[in-house]
Write a structure and sequence with these properties.
Length: 325
Amino acid sequence: MVNGRPLVEARNLTKTYPPRGSTAEFHAVDGIDFEVQRGESFGLLGPNGAGKSTTMRMIAATSPISGGSLRVLGMDPMRQGPQIRARLGVVTQDDYLDNELTVRENLHIYGRYFSLPRAVIRDRATRLLDFAQLREKAGDQVETLSGGMRRRLTIARALINEPDILLLDEPTTGLDPQARHILWDRLFRLKQEGVTLILTTHYMDEAEQLCDRLIVVDHGRIVAQGSPRELISRYATRDVLELRFRLDERDTAAEKLRTSALATGGNDTDGRVELLPDRVLVYAADGEAALATVHAMSLTPLTALVRRATLEDVFLTLTGRSLIE
Ligand SMILES: Nc1ncnc2c1ncn2[C@@H]1O[C@H](COP(=O)(O)OP(=O)(O)OP(=O)(O)O)[C@@H](O)[C@H]1O
């Protein structure tokens, strides 16, 4: 909190882009409200084009807001951009690392950008190289690093000014599963150290792992907000039954499921059937019981899997679309 207030406060925040050619004015962010408290790990989850990066740029005071209000660290990004940027760590989708310099030199240059004394930069760079598990790479040119190492260096660089908030735009996009897990581990550590994180992602597992609270955004609007657990219990059932049918049987099977005893559950979500290109999903409080009902209906799925509901199911329930493209 800044004097008892949240670190970020957005009210009816809007970003419009001017018309281009024959297209009308475009609302990339369309009146959103949210707050981020100190020490929180706050996520913006949504598909490509939802307005997540645009929101991050407004928080980072690198893109002016078009309407509503935004306070960052108690300041106005339109008037106090440099003061805000001095207290933020920003990890954008493009890393802008200097490929020809070494890992350590990249940290030093960034420290000088914040006008930090050389001795402070040296100490912090050493600590951050350890944090990013890049100590052995300190003298290597950046162009020799793997994708995961580059991303860890970018995060280390963003921490050189000991920011009050670390902004991460799609921190693990493009990384392989192992590199993602290493990065999650590092971000989890920052979270435990009490660093306030604001991150965007279109990976529901990432949001579930890292975020205390999140807003689900679609077409520039918030469609839901809460902790991952709250969202799942509000918008999905405990279990999801995933069925794969032969393609020529799939539509008929989905229709039968929709009109079956399964669909008479105690709430709107229980028994809901979603037809995806490769699967039929049945939302059920008790997935095993639902599977028994499917078998009793003489339906013959090629495969059947009972799993716990995830944020992916929340997004599907809210928008009728899958987050995965
Ligand atoms: N400078 C711009 N001029 C016009 N439209 C823009 C501009 N920048 C972004 N947009 C549009 O605004 C919308 C939101 O983009 P934004 O990058 O914020 O989405 P996102 O949720 O971060 O998705 P991604 O993960 O693809 O970055 C998109 O439709 C995008 O094409």
